[in-house]
Design brief:
The protein is of the alpha/beta class. Strand 4, helix 8 and strand 5 form a beta-alpha-beta unit. The longest helix has 26 residues. Helix 1 packs across helix 2 and helix 4 packs across helix 11. A five-stranded parallel β-sheet has the order 1-2-3-5-4, with helices on both faces. It is globular. The chain contains eleven helices and five strands; from the N terminus they run ααβαααβαβαβαβααα. It is 41% helix and 8% strand.
Length: 346
């Protein structure tokens, strides 16, 4: 009787290539200052938007990005002018980082003709092809399929571009996300799927709403690798962006980045956020605030408090000017309702 082959004690060799674990980005002093300015601009812009909403100058829904600034700043600082960005309705910060002037974004929030979407998109549906920012989408998870299409466009045109497609932990349970994953991996599309895991979706903890709460693993059955990242550390975010971009630009297909982050405000301005305690939010602010973290790094680089105060003053002035413009510039003419409805004439 033939002997059964001995079972090897050696662990199985993975049959799939994986990206390397990212390391924090080694930023220069000037880069750290640039990251600080960008995060502070988003924070002060969103605070002002919250004030205008409270005054009734912004209507509809308004979702603020306060607390999550390191994610978008770290990732988008690594992009080239060939790349495209698409996200959900918590979109103001991403737009600012695409180079859209704060006054154009704020005027859109107040529904004015000078807004980036002529006052017709508002907070949730802003858009700028010129800046390669494709929304701003109010349907949960819809931007994932559209972002996959943008990735297909980059590949079809062979333009060297990559699509950065953001969505949240709540959207990660939507069906169209997995259809998109399947297509993207089959066709090796240049897409970075960014899950901004701020822990609570609309108001339910990710641990209570997701059977697999380690969201970076969500692509495994589609052979899409994933990396979990500290989304409160801008240098960790930039390091992850570098690794993900290298993977995708090498033609290896899509990748998932799960950014572990936290929003300080409610899901939207109408959410009292009673599903978590004030103490929990305060603890995150004290231990993990992305702006305070980079201020410490700047202090280690010899940046004086006076220099940071000047940055603060300049940004507050910029945001106040944007708010003044958004309050005073005219609303759209009634005829504007009939423009941009169809791309072509039929």
């Amino acid at each position: 009787m033939a002997k059964a082959p001995a079972l090897s004690a050696e662990p199985a060799i993975p049959n799939r290539e994986r990206p390397s674990e990212p390391t924090p980005y080694q930023a220069t002093r000037d880069e750290l200052i640039a990251f600080y300015k960008e995060m502070l601009l988003i924070r002060r812009f969103e605070e002002k938007a919250g004030q205008l909403y409270g005054l009734g100058l912004i209507g509809g829904f308004c979702h603020l990005y306060i607390g999550q600034e390191a994610v978008a700043v770290g990732l988008q600082s690594a992009l080239s002018d060939k790349d495209s960005v698409i996200t959900g309705y918590r979109d103001h910060g991403h737009m600012l980082l695409c180079g859209i002037p704060p006054k154009d974004v704020m005027a859109e929030l107040t529904g004015r003709a000078a807004g980036i979407s002529k006052g017709k998109g508002g907070s949730m549906h802003m858009f700028s092809v010129e800046h390669k920012f494709y929304g701003g989408h109010g349907i949960v998870g819809a931007q994932v399929s559209l972002g996959t299409g943008l990735g297909f466009s980059h590949k079809y045109k062979n333009d060297g571009g990559v699509c950065l497609a953001y969505f949240g932990d709540g959207a990660s349970n939507q069906g169209q996300v997995y259809e998109s994953f399947n297509m993207a991996e089959l066709w090796k599309l240049p897409v970075i799927y960014v899950i901004e895991n701020n822990q609570y979706a609309m108001g339910t903890s990710v641990n209570r709403s997701s059977a697999e709460d380690q969201l970076y693993r969500r692509g495994e059955s589609f052979r899409i690798p994933g990396i979990q990242v500290d989304g409160m550390d801008v240098l960790a975010c930039r390091g992850a962006a570098e690794e993900a971009l290298a993977w995708v630009r090498a033609g290896k297909g899509p990748i998932i980045l799960e950014m572990k982050t936290y929003r300080y405000r409610g899901h939207s301005m109408s959410d009292p956020a009673k599903y978590r305690s004030r103490e929990e939010v305060q603890a995150v602010r004290e231990k993990s605030d992305p702006i305070e973290h980079i201020k410490k790094l700047l202090a280690e680089q010899g940046v004086k408090e006076d220099e940071l105060k000047q940055v603060e003053q300049d940004i507050r002035k910029q945001v106040n000017e944007a708010a003044d413009f958004a309050e005073s510039t005219p609303e759209p003419q009634a005829g504007e309702l009939y423009t941009d409805v169809l791309v072509e004439s039929y």
